[in-house]
Each structure stands twice: as structure tokens, then as C-alpha cells.
Design a protein that fits this description.
homodimer; Arc Repressor Mutant, subunit A; alpha/beta; Rossmann fold; 11 helices; elongated; DNA-binding; six-stranded parallel β-sheet; 2 domains
DNA sequence: GCTTGTCATGCGGGGACCCGCAGATTTTGC
DNA sequence: GCAAAATCTGCGGGTCCCCGCATGACAAGC
């Protein structure tokens, strides 16, 4: 059993390597890659089935790397190990995990014990392990509390990209008016209408304000926008 | 000579503590804080004059913490130690360093040697040390290449907050038309007008598009927006 | 069956935004 | 000190966005 570690921080990388060797004494080689691109190559050439993956790397982030790895071998077991539990990351991961694949999501702030346990659970027992805190985000995200619908989320991403209502309508095969309706739902859920009172009526441009609020609530983050941007170029530019 | 380390990642914290002790054998206590807020308190109570500060922390980020520390003791020497050299961070630091204060900016990807050297230079020799890569950003930022003027940058921030043209005009004591002029300069510098050709005319909403481009070019980042948001609330809400 | 709820769509108006033109004011360079 | 360049400001029009009102389709529940 070989394990691939994809992580751009040198300190974290060696820490992970030690943790892997300690938690899985029966494992063979421990391979390291320092960014998503190299990680993809290593996974392909070394035919690895077990990956520990950081999100948030330059060159190619963890979500994109995981997507291509899973596309080539959907039975690969991936343990995501991230600094943050941003809704954008959680959503991004959930969006790419293939049917029936086993994966895990552990925060870097978790104890070493929890990390080792997750390593064994995911890689040996083929069990999905989601950190408690991430779990909370996930439920909020897919449940009905102040989280967004998938439809609303997609509109939000398109707006954040800077697309026009009309352009979104074309992309999503909707009428102009439907797009605007979804936008209004979005505005309400994001509390864009807050007016501290004294005549601050025309204070906000709702459209850009929505993006700002989404960013500071971590519903969106820069890497999610970059991913969407690439998708856009690909589908539009061909 | 006591040294305060403000850093939220446990691994990096212990690594830093060791590096400090190795580079400055003559130093006294090495105090650690795990976020910006605790860092401020420690700096105040322990009367520290030498700080190693991470940017990008939850609770209160490094720039805000540094600002309050410097406000209380402008002669504090601060070495910033960050993962990224985003233009937004560089600008944020440059914006708060007091007249004549000594500070440094080293990337986490730098070698241990470089870190130790910077520690001695800043804390003992009172010399400013800016990482080569960061230096590049700084020049681009203040020079005249595709970097933004301060005026343009401020407009950009206000737009990213979701403010109306009118609201920005009031805040900045300008006429509506001047704000729109600056916006146009901004649009040109950010290459918002790119149209791949085939009839993509009304594709982008320039205003939100500008924010998207600025984010993916790292001219802006989420924490800069959050800071601006707090400033806004403070100046408007009173 | 009828009601109720959710969603997509159309219409129309008021307002915000983008931008060319042109004059006034300030800054810069020599 | 003067000319050139940059910046601020007003006007006007074309476009896009926000949103209330109204219609029809489809599903769930009494």
C-alpha cells in the first residue's frame, strides 16, 4: 500500500509523512508532491490508490487535482487535509466526489490522534470520515437553514464571475426573468438589504454587495471563483 | 530581549520558536500567541518589542494586530512571515507601518537560513528586510506598470464592498462623475473589456467583473475586503 | 377537486450604471 | 511663468439592473 502526499508546505509535508508511517506501519512507499500538478502526475505514474491532499495550493489546488485523479481512477481513496472549513471548499469537494468513492476531510487544527484515526479509517477500513466542524458546514449547506440552494449557489458563482443577467440566462438555459428571480432569493438569503437606518437608501449595489457578503461569510472564496473562471473559458472559448 | 510569536498553525509556531532561539541565542523569553487578538494582549502585557507575525489568521489577522501593536508602541520591530506575497497583503502592510519603524517580510517558502538571517537583521541590526519576491510586488504596486494607483485601489475596495457610485462619491468627497471616471481607469487597467470575439458584447457586468479579476490577480483578497468592511461600519455607523 | 406552494416566464417602470463630449481646475515639466 | 498633462465636473443618452404585478405549469396535501 503506497501513499501519496500532496501538500505545498514543507513542514506540513514532513509532519504528514511521519504521521502516515506511524498510523499505517504496514504501508509501503510514502511519496510526496509539492503541488496539485505534480500530485496528478505522481498519482498516475506511481499508480497510487491512497492520497492525502491539501486544498489551497498554488499551481493547481487540491480540488482540481482530486478531480482529475478520481476521473482516472474513481476507486482512489483521498483524505483531504485543510486549514479551513469554508463552505466553498466543502461544497467544492462534495461536488467532485464520484459515486461510492471513499474520502475524508480533516482540519489541520485537529489533533494528531484524530488525523491518524482518519488515516486508518479511510485507507484501511474504507470509511468516510468528515470532521465534526466540516460536518456542520455540510448540513447547513445542504439543509434548509440560512444555507443556499444549489441553484442559488450557481447563480452566485456566475454573478461573482462578473457575468450579465442575460449571459447567465443563456448559460443556464433560463429566461432573463428567472435569473433575476433567483437573484432576488439570493439577496434575501444573504441579507443584502441591511440599512443601518439614517437615509442610507441607495447605499449598496446589490449585485456586488452580494459577492462581498458571500466572500466574508466564506460561502465563496477566491479559488472557487478561479475554478469557475476556468470552466467559463473552456465552455465559452472552446 | 523577549520575542513574541503570533501564528495560528501549531507546527509553524514551534518551528518558529526553535528558529528564534537558534538565531538569537542571546534572547530571553519566547512567547507564543495563536491568533491576532491574543497577540495584541501579549504584546501589551509582556511589553515585547520584537514580534514575528503571521498574516492570515482567524479571529484577527496579522495586519490588524500589527496596526494596534504599532499604535501603542511605534518602535516595535515586527517580522511578517507569510505564505503568500499577494499584492493585497503587501499593500496592507505598507499602509500601516509607522514612520521610521523597522520591519521585515519573509515568505514561508524561504529557507531556514534566510529566516534566521532576517531575524537577526530586523531584531538586532534594526534593518528592514523584504523578501526578494515581495519586493517585486511592491515595485509593481507603486510603480507605473500594470499596478494600480492608490486612488484606483481605493475605488476598487469601495466597489468590492458593494457600494454605490453615489455612496462612494459621498465617502470620498468627490462628484459622482469623478468616481465614474476613476472606475473607467480601473476597468482599463484590469483589462475588463476582453471580448473573445463572437458577439460576446453584453457578456460582463463591468463592476462585478472588475472585482473578480482583481481577486484572481491577487490585487484584492478576502481579508482586505473584511478590513474595509470594518472601517466602513465604523465610519458610517458611529 | 380545490387549495396551497414553488418555480419559470412576461411586462413595465424607475433607478443605477457606462461612457462620449466639453469646459474648468489643478498638477506637472521645462 | 507658460504650456502640457492630468484630474474634476456637468450634461445627455443608451443600457442594464431591481422589483412589483400578473400568468401559467406542476406537485403536495386537506
Amino acid at each position: 500500500m503506497n501513499v501519496l502526499i500532496v501538500e505545498d508546505d514543507a513542514l506540513h509535508r514532513t509532519f504528514l509523512a511521519e504521521a502516515v508511517r506511524a498510523a499505517l506501519p504496514e504501508c509501503g512507499q510514502v511519496i510526496e508532491a509539492e503541488n496539485g500538478l505534480k500530485g496528478e502526475v505522481q498519482a498516475r505514474t506511481a499508480r497510487v490508490e491512497h492520497v492525502v491532499m491539501d486544498l489551497q495550493m498554488s499551481e493547481r489546488n487540491g480540488i482540481e487535482a482530486a478531480r482529475t485523479i478520481w476521473r482516472e481512477r474513481p476507486d482512489t481513496k483521498i483524505l483531504f487535509w485543510s486549514n479551513y472549513s469554508d463552505e466553498a471548499y466543502v461544497r467544492g469537494v462534495a461536488r467532485i466526489v464520484p459515486e461510492g468513492a471513499t474520502y475524508g476531510y480533516v482540519l489541520k487544527s485537529a489533533s494528531e490522534e484524530r488525523l491518524k484515526l482518519a488515516l486508518r479509517s479511510v485507507f484501511v477500513e474504507s470509511q468516510c470520515v468528515i470532521d465534526r466542524e466540516v460536518r456542520g458546514i455540510q448540513q447547513k449547506s445542504f439543509g434548509n437553514s440560512p444555507g443556499l440552494t444549489d441553484a442559488e449557489y450557481e447563480i452566485l458563482v456566475d454573478v461573482a464571475l462578473g457575468l450579465t443577467d442575460k449571459a447567465i440566462a443563456k448559460r443556464k438555459h433560463l429566461s432573463l426573468r428567472s435569473v433575476q428571480n433567483r437573484l432576488q432569493q439570493l439577496y434575501e438569503k444573504l441579507d443584502v438589504y441591511e440599512t443601518p437606518g439614517q437615509g442610507n437608501e441607495g447605499l449598496f449595489n446589490l449585485r456586488t454587495r452580494a459577492v462581498a457578503v458571500a466572500l466574508s461569510r466564506k460561502v465563496l472564496n477566491a479559488s472557487a471563483i478561479e475554478r469557475a473562471e476556468r470552466d467559463l473559458r473552456q465552455s465559452a472559448g472552446i
